[in-house]
């Protein structure tokens, strides 16, 4: 192997990729050029294995202002308001250093949103780990939560919801995803473009150091093995204080119309922040690396170009406004340096120590990146897994089974995590963490924005298409119970090794499922992220797409339904098909330690009707409590209502299995007797089945079925639910 | 035995707080400050006779808990 | 303007405080920490957040900001000075209120509704409340654990179920004159039913009532 | 000149970090730990010739910023 080959392979580049670089340049690349191509063409930055599939997503709707392709998607809320949203993963960095990995994940997603001109108003975290009886998993879980809290709280953006789940498959490879929502006035929208020839590139924020050198290729795009530790030099450290100042400075720049475009520096650092905006503008750029403010001396051009030092932004400015821009930076006590000039043509020229270190077609770094149509194959084991169904002939003690479910850390209260997050800042949080969806008011309007983020690796493992489909419908129902109607989706596709045909097949199937559901709901996918190589020692995680769904309530309900709003005497109703589906359910996992069978398919028409009904009931204030039925079925759903509302319940269903069924498109409502007629009429109008299952009252949760009746003391349910996570960390 | 553990952030790793404190000192007019580093020093009193065994035990504590091996280096001194 | 809300780099809650004060009929404006002139203000609020990123110690660097001289002058002159959360920490670091803050007993950030009890109504923040009055107000801090080795601090609001180990369960502390008060929980987060509680109103209304020209806007 | 400032929490002040670390060490099976104290050590590089002037300057930094008199004592060593 030649020395050259040794180098490009060490940078994570294949021989073919190296040859196409030579093809583009017509010569062998200089070291800095090779470094740039290697990070820009890494899986993480180039989406080389996924691009061809992402095109499947529906991305159009009248209210879409910016779809996939920019740093964040943007939708029109009406009355001159826009919302920007995006979701990102920081899985591998969080495994290497949980606190900083999660913290810098938060910093990165915030930048994607305020790069668009929006003020970030809320965050949601979706985090998945191996079982908490393993010390390493406890360390990762508490470190990640502390990192999200440490960064999010200090930067001053509330974390108002998310998901916590535990499964063996994440033991060597935790998933740390974060979604951010921002809002702005229409005229503040900014794009990642370099603008006209002559406009000036101003680098704002932290000095550049050797953080995460090669991070994009080394950390985000390669699998783990025992030597993960060897990759530690790539660790990045977050500085929320600097980011807070950067946010305020950028928002002032936008307000005063001082920039033509902005690009955040994330993966691939300066390489990306120079080449992508230039390519988007169809321009070239001259960059002077000596002008870049640095934290460490003696950095090479390659290091400067690939550093992932955090809290940096590239602003593109008309020459006449450079002084004003630097003055704003000065006011907010951040550094700003003029590092380049946009040029006609398409060549990105980079100088360092007076020498030309790179001269490449700007667009070639992103657009000429390799595309892989990786082979796909349905897993041979799948059919067998579908055969592995449980017959549920023996009936469990319904109280004990429910208690066991409430004590499960994936189902029990996540308060241990979210009480470490500031979820109230900005005084917008109407429905916060611990509910189905979050509801934020938009001050200065009558509108409310609702968000739910949902993932379910076990469902997608059993059937990636149905799993992907059901995630979207579940998220939509979760926003509907706050009174909002679905509007747009961002997705985070966490998968295993794309070089395995089974993984690629799962990937495609999930995308098909998500796309189909979005099409039925008439909502676009406006952005997202792909994280491959989530495997440890050759074992892939369950396919775990996470969907973040934005909905709008206009006007926001005067009193939105809450889990803790139930009271003595209210009737308990279940709306939606009375069907039984236990494949992939929490009941089979917790009670039988089983994963098998084929989950029920979604029913688009029913999904649409149920979502409309839930939103209507919430908007009309007819149901103090609305709660979608998911993990643990009706049994867990009603228990959560009872625990949060401090009141018991007496419920009866014919078939005990209905208590734990996770069949889609169903929700629980509590209704005052006086409103029952109206509520059932609305259900009938929308063609949704309504089943009265009991009433709230007393201090026990009583489950009556044809074969068996058990009752669970509210106090016991409450303490199991509250202790599910903390007792495993003690 | 008395053991002192000095825990130092690796110099290649960014130190936001250190930088902020240095800036604040400059703002206060203390121009002459060339560099500033904030370490943690942990003083332990540990049972044991043999310095080497104690050192090994404390080294284990550092790896497991006291230091963050990803970001920090540590140095152990066993006082006679 | 009558209520000046001081903004340090890293402050977070300034917009919320301004919003709550205006909601209650007061008049508030944010003031940058590098300004030194508070002559137009009848009262000052140091809001919550993470001034200077909590580098070294929470409040340590903020106390040195130019504006703190004027804050001290107002405090001495008997004008209402309110520190909320990080603002409370800054007042202690500046020696305007006694004591200091250390990490919460359980070394975890705490953001949730907590119950407090008013124990002293002789201050600008509590004058409108009753002794023994219970309030539900959001807490939101990592260093909420107040210590005062001199035992000179005047505790005016207490946690009924101490979440962070604070000495004497202190949630709010006043100077002897009662015109300077620091409170760890956030009254401005409890002024609208839509957001879950209005128990912070009685405190902020007392504060506004004590502001010479703000009382009936 | 190189100056080291040791900042030590007063013993009368509670120390949640120290307490938590001590507990965690015990949980990890390190029974022999009798006592544990975590200090902050600040290393400064300061311009100047005369150790005394430098010490005074650093003392000023401590009074103004580096140490909180309510919680902490400080000790300054000017390395030759
Ligand atoms: N799974 C996905 N679904 C929809 N859009 C996606 C997905 N993955 C990536 N994208 C889009 O591809 C574009 C490039 O992503 P990326 O390079 O990660 O942006 P950034 O550098 O800002 O992180 C973004 O607009 C993102 O929204
Ligand atoms: Mg970006």
Task: Note the topology.
The complex is a heterotetramer, with 1 copy of chain A (730 residues), 2 copies of chain B (80 residues) and 1 copy of chain C (217 residues).
Chain A: H1 3-10, H2 15-25, H3 31-40, H4 43-46, H5 51-54, E1 64-66, E2 73-78, E3 81-89, H6 91-96, H7 98-114, E4 119-129, H8 135-155, E5 159-166, E6 175-185, E7 200-205, H9 215-218, H10 240-255, E8 261-264, H11 269-281, E9 284-288, H12 301-306, E10 312-317, H13 322-331, E11 336-343, E12 347-352, E13 355-361, H14 362-366, H15 382-387, H16 398-406, H17 415-418, E14 429-431, E15 438-441, E16 448-455, H18 457-462, H19 464-480, E17 485-494, H20 501-521, E18 525-531, E19 535-536, E20 539-540, E21 544-553, E22 571-575, H21 586-592, H22 604-619, E23 625-628, H23 633-645, E24 649-652, E25 667-671, H24 676-686, E26 690-696, E27 700-704, E28 709-713, H25 714-723, H26 726-729
Parallel strand pairs in A: 4-5, 9-12, 17-18, 24-27
Antiparallel strand pairs in A: 1-2, 2-3, 3-6, 4-6, 7-10, 7-11, 8-10, 9-11, 12-13, 14-15, 15-16, 16-21, 17-21, 19-20, 22-25, 22-26, 23-25, 24-26, 27-28
Chain B: E1 2-9, H1 16-27, E2 33-46, H2 51-66, E3 72-78
Antiparallel strand pairs in B: 1-2, 1-3
Chain C: E1 3-7, H1 14-23, E2 28-32, E3 43-46, H2 67-76, E4 81-84, H3 86-93, E5 100-102, E6 110-118, E7 134-141, E8 145-147, E9 154-159, E10 170-174, E11 180-183, H4 201-209
Parallel strand pairs in C: 1-2, 1-3, 3-4, 4-11
Antiparallel strand pairs in C: 5-8, 6-7, 6-9, 9-10, 10-11
The structure holds adenosine-5'-diphosphate (ADP) and magnesium ion (MG).
């Amino acid at each position: 192997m030649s020395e050259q080959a040794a180098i490009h392979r060490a940078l994570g580049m294949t021989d073919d990729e190296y040859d196409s670089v030579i093809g583009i340049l017509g010569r062998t690349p200089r070291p800095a050029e090779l470094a740039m191509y290697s990070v820009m063409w890494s899986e993480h930055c180039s989406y080389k294995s996924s691009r061809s599939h992402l095109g499947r997503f529906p991305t159009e709707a009248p209210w879409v202002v910016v779809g996939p392709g920019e740093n964040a998607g943007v939708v029109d809320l009406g009355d001159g308001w826009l919302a920007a949203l995006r979701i990102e993963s920081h899985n591998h960095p969080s495994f290497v250093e949980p606190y900083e990995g999660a913290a810098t994940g938060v910093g990165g997603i915030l930048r994607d949103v305020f790069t668009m001109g929006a003020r970030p108003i809320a965050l949601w975290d979706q985090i998945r780990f191996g079982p908490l009886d393993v010390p390493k998993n406890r360390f990762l879980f508490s470190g990640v939560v502390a990192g999200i809290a440490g960064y999010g709280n200090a930067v001053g953006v509330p974390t108002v919801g998310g998901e916590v789940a535990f499964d063996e498959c994440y033991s060597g490879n935790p998933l740390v995803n974060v979604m951010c929502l921002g809002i702005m006035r229409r005229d503040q929208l900014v794009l990642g473009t370099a603008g006209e020839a002559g406009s000036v590139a101003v680098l704002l924020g932290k000095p550049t150091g050797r953080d995460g050198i090669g991070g994009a290729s080394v950390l985000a795009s390669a699998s783990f093995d025992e030597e993960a530790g060897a990759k530690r030099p790539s660790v990045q450290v977050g500085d929320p204080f600097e980011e807070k100042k950067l946010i305020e400075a950028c928002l002032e720049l936008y307000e005063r119309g001082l920039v033509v475009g902005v690009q955040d520096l994330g993966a691939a650092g300066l390489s990306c922040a120079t080449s992508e905006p230039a390519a988007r503008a169809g321009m070239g750029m001259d960059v002077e690396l000596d002008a870049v403010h640095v934290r460490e001396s003696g950095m090479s051009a390659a290091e400067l170009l690939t550093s992932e030092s955090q809290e940096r932004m590239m602003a593109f400015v008309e020459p006449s406004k450079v002084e004003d821009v630097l003055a704003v930076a000065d006011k907010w006590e951040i550094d700003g340096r003029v590092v380049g000039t946009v040029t006609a043509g398409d060549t990105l020229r980079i100088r360092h120590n007076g020498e030309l270190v790179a001269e490449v077609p700007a667009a070639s770094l992103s657009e000429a990146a390799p595309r892989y149509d990786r082979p796909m194959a349905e897993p041979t084991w799948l059919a067998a897994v579908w055969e592995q169904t449980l017959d549920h002939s023996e009936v469990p003690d319904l109280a004990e089974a429910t208690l066991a479910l409430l004590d499960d850390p994936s189902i029990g209260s996540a308060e241990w995590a979210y009480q470490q997050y500031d979820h109230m800042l900005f005084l917008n949080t109407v429905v916060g963490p611990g509910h189905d969806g979050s509801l934020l008011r938009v001050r200065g309007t009558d509108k409310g924005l609702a968000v739910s983020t949902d993932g379910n690796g076990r469902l997608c493992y059993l059937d990636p298409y149905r799993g992907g489909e059901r995630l979207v419908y579940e998220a939509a129902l979760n926003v509907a119970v706050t009174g909002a109607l679905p509007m747009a989706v961002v997705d985070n596709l966490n998968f295993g090794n794309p070089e395995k045909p089974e993984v690629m097949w799962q990937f495609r199937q999930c995308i098909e499922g998500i796309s189909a559901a979005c099409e039925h709901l008439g909502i676009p996918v406006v952005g997202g992220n792909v994280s491959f190589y989530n495997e440890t020692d050759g074992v892939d995680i369950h396919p775990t797409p996470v969907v973040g769904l934005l909905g709008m309530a206009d006007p926001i309900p005067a009193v939105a339904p809450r889990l803790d709003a139930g009271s003595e005497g209210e009737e308990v109703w279940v709306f939606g098909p009375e069907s039984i589906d236990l494949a992939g359910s929490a009941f089979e996992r917790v009670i039988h330690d089983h994963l098998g069978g084929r989950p029920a398919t979604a029913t688009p028409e029913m999904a649409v009707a149920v979502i409309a009904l839930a939103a209507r009931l919430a908007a009309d204030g007819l149901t103090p409590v609305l709660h979608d039925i998911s993990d643990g079925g009706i049994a867990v759903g009603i228990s959560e209502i009872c625990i949060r509302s401090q009141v018991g319940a007496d419920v009866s269903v014919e078939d005990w299995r209905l208590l734990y069924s996770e069949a889609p498109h169903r929700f629980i409502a509590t209704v005052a007797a006086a409103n029952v007629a109206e509520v059932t009429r609305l259900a009938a109008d929308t063609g949704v089945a309504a089943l009265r299952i009991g009433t709230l009252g007393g201090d026990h949760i009583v489950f009556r079925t044809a074969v068996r009746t058990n009752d669970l003391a509210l106090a016991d349910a409450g303490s199991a639910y509250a202790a599910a996570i903390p007792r495993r960390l003690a | 035995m008395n053991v002192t553990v000095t825990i130092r952030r690796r110099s290649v790793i960014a130190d936001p707080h250190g930088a902020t404190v240095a800036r604040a000192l400059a703002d206060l007019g203390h121009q002459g400050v060339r560099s500033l580093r904030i370490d943690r020093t942990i003083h332990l009193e540990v049972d044991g006779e043999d310095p080497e065994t104690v050192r090994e035990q404390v080294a284990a504590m550092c790896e497991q808990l006291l230091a963050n091996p990803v970001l920090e280096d540590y140095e152990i001194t066993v006082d006679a | 303007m009558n209520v000046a809300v001081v903004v340090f780099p890293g402050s977070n809650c300034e917009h919320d405080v301004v919003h709550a004060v205006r909601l209650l009929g007061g008049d508030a404006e944010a003031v940058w920490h590098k300004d030194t002139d508070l002559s137009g203000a009848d009262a000052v609020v140091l809001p919550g957040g993470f001034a200077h990123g909590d580098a070294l110690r929470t409040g340590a660097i903020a106390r040195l900001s130019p504006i703190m001289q004027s804050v001290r002058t107002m405090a001495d002159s008997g004008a209402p000075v309110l520190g909320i959360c990080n603002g409370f920490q800054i007042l202690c670091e500046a020696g305007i209120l006694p004591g200091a803050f250390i990490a919460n007993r359980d070394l975890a950030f705490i953001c949730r509704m907590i119950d407090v009890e008013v124990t002293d109504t002789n201050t600008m923040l509590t004058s409108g409340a009753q002794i023994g009055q219970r309030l539900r107000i959001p807490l939101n801090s990592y260093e909420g654990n107040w210590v005062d080795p001199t035992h000179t601090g005047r505790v005016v609001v207490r946690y009924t179920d101490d979440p962070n180990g604070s000495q004497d369960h202190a949630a709010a502390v006043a100077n002897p004159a009662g015109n300077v008060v620091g409170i760890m929980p956030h009254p401005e987060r409890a002024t609208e039913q839509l957001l879950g509680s209005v128990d912070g109103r009685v405190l902020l209304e007392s504060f506004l009532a004590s502001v010479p020209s703000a009382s009936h806007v």
